[in-house]
Amino acid sequence: MTDHTLTVAGVAVDTRHFIGGERVASDATFTDFSPIDGSVLGEIARGGAAEAEAAVAAAKAAFPAWAATPRAERARLLHAVADGVEKRLEDLAIVETCDNGALLRSHRRGVMPRVAHNFRFFADWLLKLEHEDFETRGHTNHVSWDPAGPCVLITPWNAPLMLATWKVAPALAAGDTVVLKPAEWSPLTASLLADIAAEAGLPAGVLNVVQGYGAEIGDPLTSHPDVRRISFTGSVPTAKRISASAAANLTPLSLELGGKSPLLVFADADLDLAVDLAVEQYDNAGQVCLAATRILVEEPVAEEFTRRFVAKASRLTQGDPRDEATDIGPNIHPRQLEKIDGFVQRALAAGARAVIGGHRGEGQYYAPTLLTDVAQDSEIVQEEVFGPVLTLQTFRDEDEAVRLANDTRFGLAATVATGDRERAERVTARLVAGTVWVNCFFVRDLQAPFGGSRHSGVGREGGTWSFDFYCDLKNTVTAPKGFHDHG
């Protein structure tokens, strides 16, 4: 192995950037740690303005030919990338588990197969993407989706490859070229994706991957005048910085941000189902933007719901995410663990009660926590913790349930548990959220719109909405006269 390659569970990963079809080193590096045990995985190339400039230049140079590539050929190449993902599924699964601490069993069975599906879905959607022509006073209107240009895609650490490919796949399908900047806490599978894309035959410069720390590389990417689209998933403060950076060039943005989503449990709900939904919010150690971290329970069933919740949650196994029996792994980084514990300790000091948890475990593990006796205007109810921490409040009727559910600055998702179909329709109509699940959780079809309201985001992606974002929509109006007859 060279100095630019590290080995993770037997898998070789190149630590350099991937720009214009070539591996590019940086003078500086940053250290990548495994959250499982805090061990050093390796030193990663730390890019800045020079690497950002090179990556955007490569994407710009590759754009005309890629945009002109017939849809069928673009789709074929995306399917080839999906084939490569499936071929290396085990490598991707173990590397990502070691890099971000999510469960290996989930990566094997759900996440990495979904990565391949992301490419296949948008490849297939591209081939059927069309808008029916319509007439205006005898003139024909034809709507087309023109590739926009180089895109900067900035992705988070909680589901690194799946969330990256939610963006990369539609951008490439649309005919755009991509500069992908993965999160510095979990950069490794993005590097493997670059290898897979190259092996699949994706032309040089169509997909570029650059690594770096925050604004050092983020600012020169998002402020670059040659960038035509920016898609970001992450925190509200970072989104505000990106928005300010993009404003000078009026670069269109898609922002999927934080959440403080509610789970509304009505007295007529199947309580076992409701408890299952509530405990499911500990998935990925609570590091899920869509998680329903605020449990709102109708008063008559609150005591019984809590009893059943505690019984089920107490059976969760926390430990090494590579172990098949583990239900909850570590949190991503010591800094994130400090943040989680800070939220909990301040809540306890303010009078909250920990029904379960409320403390750290060993290493980077935080005990699954449920807090009660919390005020609606308290920090723990209003701010995103992004860890295995839930709150429980009660309500008396539908009006109060909806009021509490909508009473944050976020609006990413909501979950409703009820046995009354009419109530479900009434309540969901009043909830402020980009996605509402009724008696289920985390069911997402890629043809549906995805995004958030309020401070949870700007715009929607998924299906045709993705192409609307990653393309410049053009309407061509043609008169029925004025053409020469070439007979």
Main β-sheet description: 7 strands, mixed
Through-space gap between termini: 68 Å
Radius of gyration: 24 Å
Class from secondary-structure proportions? alpha/beta
Low-confidence stretches: none
Number of contiguous helices: 15
Number of strands: 22
Strand proportion, as a percent range, falls in: 15-25%
- Overall form: globular
Helix content range of the residues, please? 25-40%
Q: Major sheet: order of its strands?
A: 16-17-18-15-14-19-20
Key features of this structure:
22 strands, 6-stranded mixed β-sheet, about 20% strand, globular, about 475 residues, alpha/beta, 7-stranded mixed β-sheet
Structure description:
With 487 residues, the protein is of the alpha/beta class. The protein contains 15 helices and 22 strands. The chain has helices at 49-68, 71-87, 89-100, 104-128, 160-173, 188-200, 214-222, 236-247, 271-279, 299-313, 334-349, 379-382, 398-406, 421-430, 463-470, and strands at residues 5-8, 11-14, 17-19, 22-24, 29-33, 40-45, 134-136, 139-147, 150-154, 177-181, 207-209, 229-233, 253-256, 262-265, 294-298, 353-356, 369-372, 389-395, 413-417, 435-438, 457-458, 471-478. The strands form six sheets. A seven-stranded mixed β-sheet has the order 16-17-18-15-14-19-20, sandwiched between helices. It has a six-stranded mixed β-sheet with strand order 11-10-9-12-13-21, with helices on both faces. Strand 7 and strand 8 form a beta hairpin. Helix 1 (49-68) packs across helix 7 (214-222), helix 2 (71-87) runs antiparallel to helix 4 (104-128) and helix 2 packs across helix 6 (188-200).
